[in-house]
Fold this sequence. Notes:
alpha/beta; Alpha/beta knot; 17% strand
Amino acid sequence: MRIDIITIFPEVILPVLQAGILKRAQARDILTVNVHNLRDFTTDRHQSVDDYPYGGGAGMILKPEPLFAAIRALHPASTARVVYLTPQGTPFNQSFAEAFSLESHLILICGRYKGIDERVRTKLVTDEISIGDYVLSGGEIPALVLVDAIGRVLPHALGNYESAQEDSFSQDLLDCPHYTRPAEFEGMKVPDILLSGHHKKITDWQHEQSLRRTAERRPDLLKNIELSTEDIAYLKNNE
Ligand code: SAM
């Protein structure tokens, strides 16, 4: 999979790509991430990327010419999905990460200041994505959120020890609690069942804990899944 990121601050993005799963996915050629400086697509002497808004008001707008030039240079065949990160977009979630991971080419546009010229959105942007109902100063952190969430669900990106299957949201449930050694720490004991070595009982316990957590913290998620009769009985008994 190839992801191109257009930004005026490559230095915000580059270090994050050099660690952990993202670094490994790139080293294994599962993922290619190219970070492009928008200034490289300007034609004027000052490499201007922003200008004052028509109609007045505070804040600058990213100009259309460099953005059009960058996007057209990166996907001449128009096959990529062109994603603008914006608080006005569709809220990002795990289903989006999984759907985007099936694409072969994404172009992510990071806004700054008041945002980008509307004509880029109307003509070239295919998707508008928000990472939450708050306003950040730029699209770089949102772009990294997408790259990380997408990168870790690409086939073979995770090692055995980082399975994504049991993570929160992958089955529309939150993950169960986890423990590691020591078996007792400051008087707090690991649940006996996890020390029992009984695989079936352990997976049943983990599933019940996921159900309980989801019911307590995110009951809205339970509406998306078909619960078994055992699940329903468990939730009733633990209300
Ligand atoms: N004037 C814009 C608005 O109110 O919709 C906000 C501009 S914001 C200060 C600058 C840039 O940060 C945006 O163009 C966008 O790329 C990015 N950004 C800020 N918050 C975001 C969020 N919650 N999700 C995705 N991108 C965001």
